[in-house]
Design a protein that fits this description.
single chain, alpha/beta
Length: 61
């Protein structure tokens, strides 16, 4: 599985997921912090990843 962590998720989650063999990238690693939800979602789709976020209004894009 491939995950992308939003900027509101601690970077330690990336290390934990990777230690279990998951392919995990963080928004902060890709200089995507501060981007709109739409831009972030496009990146998630383009990379075929599952987004992990605490952004409660993200579902309304």
């Amino acid at each position: 599985m491939k995950f992308k962590l939003d900027e509101n998720i601690p970077i330690t989650v990336k290390e934990i997921l990777n230690s279990f063999g998951y392919n995990t990238r963080a928004v902060i690693d890709q200089n995507l912090q501060g981007k709109s939800d739409t831009e972030l979602w496009e990146a998630v789709l383009n990379e075929d990843r599952i987004l992990i976020t605490q952004d409660l209004d993200f579902a309304y894009i």
